[in-house]
Amino acid sequence: MKHPLPTASTSSNDSTSEQRTAVSTGQRQTSIIDFSKRPVTDKRRQQITDLLINFVVKDVRPLSALSGEGFRDIMKFFEPGYKILSHATLWSNIMLQYNTVKARIANEMKDKSVSLTTDLWTSCTMDPYITITAHYITDIWELKSRVLRTTIMPERHTAVNIAQRLKETIEKWDLVVFCTIHDNASSMNLAMELCEQFPHHLGCAGHTIQLAIKARLHLPEIAKTTDAARRVVSHFRHSSVAVCALKKRQEQLGVKVHKLQNDCATRWNSTFTMLERLYEQRLPVQAVLADETVTKVGIRRSLAMRECQWELVEQLIPVLRPLAKATTIMCGENHVGLSFIYPVLLNMANNTLSANESDLAAICSFKIP
């Protein structure tokens, strides 16, 4: 009885015979080059356009990135039949996609009880902005965060102007606002009072923690130490010679090759990061500063940190670490922060909050005594 399926040798022979037949009749297999030269259908052209727009939007790239010679060479290689659209056409496609996404999100938030967070901030080019974010739960119990507005705010940041921006956003999106979370600035508090659409508003717990910590960082001895640390870091951030020497010393001493981190006045966590990284790099930093071929005598004297200051930095790090972790938890967008406030603050008081990057299970399971 013959087996119903062909054997491997039979299949191989059939394949070989087919190839010979194709050669004898002048036929040949389609090469990758021929495949790439196939005409672009309207459907595929639209798919490519959508992907290019997605690249610009998701990666926050300028439209000019699609006009670069290198990018066009890549597109020509992979899809020679596709012609990149003009700047105006691409922009109109982006606006079309924006309106589609906006309609979908508006429908998703319709009749939902929405909470807002808002803040005023300044870009690195000193342009003033306001950002308004909506938080809500969908019909299938998914927590969503949507940035509704990030726009330049050149007018004075008074309570009246802030309230006007919030009202415009609420009316534009037709929101039912339950609560608004904001920082504790007096202008922001007054703006909330001027918005009759807000039944409730709360100051940000993370911002409250930040203010409390910054007040302690301004204590005389701590302020002197952080200022000294800041000068050292600034020197290494602005001297290419010192940076190269630091990397060489790190390799010689077997210390992790990390760059020093400067701090930002509006983010106390950055001060903790600066001190922690500087103390980690203490030995190579001191070696570079002591090297007369790299650091001039006058600069070395102005940057020298006393032993008591290094000791204070060492003592500050374990104190600030749980506070930094608490601030990170409070500022999370993928979980509800209100239920964490009391457990986190109690853990901070007991200095038992984990400093590693594990999940929030320990905090979520914490029971208030």
Describe the structure.
Helices cover 57% and strands 11% of the residues. α10 (240-253) crosses α12 and α11 packs across α14. The protein has 16 helices and 5 strands. The radius of gyration is 30 Å and the shape is globular. The protein folds into 3 domains: 34-109, no CATH class; 112-203, Nucleotidyltransferase, domain 5 (2-Layer Sandwich); 214-364, no CATH class. Strands 3-2-1-4-5 form a 5-stranded mixed β-sheet. A hairpin with a 5-residue loop joins β2 and β3. The chain is of the alpha/beta class and 369 residues long.
The arrangement of helices and strands along the chain is: HHHHHEEEHEHEHHHHHHHHH
Question: Over the alpha carbons, how many angstroms does the gyration radius reach?
Answer: 30 Å
Spans where pLDDT lies below 50 across 5 or more residues: 1-12, 352-369
Distance between the termini: 80 Å
Overall pLDDT confidence? 81
Domains (count): 3
Number of helices: 16
The percentage helix is 55-70%
Structural class: alpha/beta
Beta strand %: 5-15%
Q: In what order do the strands lie side by side in the largest sheet?
A: 3-2-1-4-5
Shape: globular
Largest sheet: 5 strands, mixed
What's this entry about, in short?
This protein is α/β, with parallel strands linked by helices. It has helices at about 10-25, 30-35, 40-60, 70-80, 85-110, 160-175, 185-195, 205-215, 220-240, 240-255, 270-280, 280-290, 295-305, 305-330, 340-350, 360-365; strands at about 115-120, 130-135, 145-150, 175-180, 200-205.
